[in-house]
Amino acid sequence: MDLFKKNGEDLLKRLAPLADRMRPRTLEEYIGQQHIIGEGRLLRRAIQIDQLSSLIFYGPPGTGKTTLARIIANTTRAQFLSINAVLAGVKEIREAIDNAQKTLNLYGKRTILFVDEVHRFNKSQQDALLPHVENGIIILIGATTENPYFEVNKALVSRSRIFQLKTLTEDDLRAIAMQALSDKERGYGNRSVQIDEDALDHLVKVANGDARGVLNALELAVETTAPDSEQVIHINRKIAEESIQQRAVLYDKDGDVHYDTISAFIKSIRGSDPDAALYWMSKMLYAGEDPRFIFRRMLILACEDVGLADPHALGVVVNAANAFDYVGMPEGRYHLAHACLYLATAPKSNSSLGFFDALKLVETEATEEVPNHLRDANRDGQGFGHGAGYLYPHAYRDHWVAQQYLPSSLQGKLFYQPSDQGYEKSIGERVCRLREAQLEAILDENDSSALFAPEKSSGKGQWVQRTHGNSAEQLGRIREKIMSVAELSRTDLVLDLNTGSGLLTLEAARCTPDGGVWALVHDQKSFSTMSKLIERFNPLERPQLVLTDWHSFDTDLKKTAGENVKFDRIIGRAVLAGREKKKDLFDRIVKLLNKKGKIVLAETVYSEGQRLSELLNRKRMDVSLMEKLIAAESELFNDPSDHLVNWTPESLEEQIGQIDGMKISFDKVTENNPRIFKSSDIEFWFRKTGGTGRLSLGERLEKSCDSREIEEIKKELHVQLDNKSHSWKNVTLFI
Predict the structure, then answer these.
(1) How far apart are CA 488 and CA 477, in angstroms?
(2) Is the pLDDT of residue 440 over 70?
(3) Left (φ > 0), alpha (ψ -120 to 50) or beta: where does 574 sit?
(4) In a designed cystine with 386, which of 149, 375, 444, 484 is the match (CB 3.0 to 4.6 A)?
(5) CATH dotted code for 256-348
């Protein structure tokens, strides 16, 4: 480079706008967007280890899309090229591809191609680029202000990972402005600039999440304000107001805001918030939205989200829509408000979605024949016996009789689940009673020897398995409860404290493709199992496993995830139960949580679990033996030296229920699930532990019983429990 060219580039840098000069050069200088580039996040890891795949950055202006691309350019060992989709034609794209091919052949280096305004790519540009993105010669990084799922070519979207950059917060903008005022090299750190707090607040509020906007306004304020006698440039509220324009109303009837606003409107009604529903509807009408579009969405919602909880809702909306057609605007807004408020305040039920479950089954399963007794007897009744055995409901009490209506292989499928709201609450109990009676009729008609075969996964077998309990289903309900309370988003950083075989870890990984999951594994066997299970995930999406123990889990985690890592969600099952110092452990867990994060734990309350003595017919047993069994059980469930059972929900709440700055709630759920006991279950309760671990029930009975009495108790358990279904109590505490 000659001297004149270097001087020219230095001059351009000094004369560049403040917003351009202050662009972050490294991830450490980057402010905001912590949901995608915070410590431990997928994108940050990909940039740091230089293992990028094709990406598209999507977000409003001034949120840092181009800046992120420049940081990648400064970080990567690959060749970095940049073009603009509007200014570059097919010729420029082919030149970039040729350059990439030569670089790969000569130096073995990949090429990253940054395409600004990627949504403006036309078909010929796409056709020139796509084959080379597919074969790996080019790694594409696109930037767009439009929703890529609507505006970017589908072929590019399908080959790229989408990262949404959110509007910067006021704290982010304030930090960016202060960074510019203090930076001596690129900002105003060498000049005495004093900005009033209310002036900075005004710049930040009106900038509305746009970093470029706040820096441009700050630059205009500084450059147009003369210093005082002490060479201090003082920016007050008046100067700030003159330096930045008013915020424009943002609503495009064909763009993202249109769909986002109608989505907010529908979700507000679904959430029974009439104030929010009126606000979002007013915003749409003010911006010129077609009232008939709003009525159409309310007509759908009346059946989808209110449904049979209030069967009158559909009629109210239909009448309001008809009245609107008669009256027109502006008075028709009364009818819009009337329908909106009725739906928002009505009880809710989405039980009509059962239709789509049935439709999916029809589409995917083999064609099922109509049961013989339901067939048309008028046509083939004499020749084929169609309709024979049909029981006419109106001939029976309450106009109902128990009989089979679904095909045999689907018997037991539940499509309709009445809610406990409004009108449906009044019919729910009756629906359940009829189902129970129908199940009893089916059991009476079929050979009971095949009912409990585990290989049956549909129809009758599915119903009976559900009716007689299933530990996998119970774990599934625990997982659903944890995930429901945790409310995971795509960009959340999640920690599973006790991954086990991946019950929570794998589900969390599927819910957070743009964030990340870290999983603590506490034994080598589980680590080996999980390592195999996560192989099916893309390397960057895989949960990060940390083999550790409860003594050093936090330090081991920080060694791999980063010293300052904080998690948006911390989840776990069987974390506190069995640990000696539960309060200390919980305090260490809290330190790993973001300020606005959430911890969700599920703990089995073993001390309140099912007692065998409660399942027995006490009249069949000797009174003294029953008393000894109860005493042994009491010792087992209340052993003060056993950390698995020496606590209750109340004692745990006393220990961890008060932590400054945290709202901690406890939800105890008791389930009574049918369970069939095997002979091996009873033998397990009387096993010999050899003095290792906690004593079995049989070993505790030895303290008060001789061998004959123990055998008598065991025999009675076999007689009363073997291969019989009993209600088994499980107590789970959700924290």
Answers:
(1) 17
(2) no
(3) left
(4) 375
(5) 1.20.272.10
**What value, to the nearest 5°, has the Cα angle with vertex 573 and ends 569 and 576?**
100
Token digits for 459? 């129809």
DSSP 365-404: SPP-PPPGGGS-HHHHHHHH-TTTT---GGGSGGG-----
Confidence (pLDDT) at 495: 94
Q: How far apart are CA 83 and CA 76, in angstroms?
A: 18
With CA atoms as reference, report the closest residue to 172 among 145, 143, 208, 202: 208
Q: Alpha carbon of 583 to those of 428, 653, 657: distances in Å?
A: 43, 10, 9
Which residue's entry shows tokens 């000094």?
A: 14
Q: What is the pLDDT of residue 336?
A: 92
Compute the distance between CA of residue 504 and CA of residue 495 in angstroms, rounded to an integer.
10
| Fold match between domain 33-164 and domain 471-604 | yes
Which tokens in the block code for residue 281?
A: 């509807």
Q: How far is CA 701 from CA 215, 645, 669, 694, in A?
A: 78, 18, 30, 14
Q: Residue 422, by phi and psi: left (phi above 0), alpha (psi -120 to 50) or beta?
A: left
Question: Roughly what angle, to the nearest 10 degrees, separates helices 197-207 and 211-223?
Answer: 140
Bridge partners (DSSP) listed for residue 727: 674
Cα(502)–Cα(521) distance, rounded to whole angstroms? 10
What are 218-243's pLDDT values in tens digits?
888 888 888 888 888 888 888 888 77
Residue type, position 205, single letter: K
For the chain, domain boundaries: 33-164, 170-243, 256-348, 352-467, 471-604, 607-734
Question: Which 3-state string (H, E, C) describes 65-88?
Answer: HHHHHHHHHHHCCCEEEEEECCCC
**Position 545: which residue type?**
L
By CB neighbour count within 10 A (0-12 exposed, 13-18 middle, 19+ buried), where does 166 fall?
Answer: middle
Question: Cα separation of 416 and 431, whole Å?
Answer: 10
- Of 401, 567, 548, 438, the C-alpha closest to 494 is 567
In CATH, the architecture of 170-243 is Orthogonal Bundle (1.10)
Does domain 33-164 fall into CATH 3.40.50.300?
yes
Band of pLDDT at residue 500, cut at 50, 70 and 90:
confident
Per-residue CA distances from 600 to 135, 302, 554, 666, 735 (Å) = 43, 34, 17, 10, 6
Whether 545 contacts 556, CB under 8 Å: no
CATH number of 471-604: 3.40.50.150
Output the pTM of the full model.
0.55
| Sheet with 516-521, side-by-side order of all strands | 544-547, 516-521, 493-496, 567-573, 593-604, 725-734, 667-676
Q: Is the pLDDT of residue 282 over 70?
A: yes
How many residues make up the chain in this entry? 735
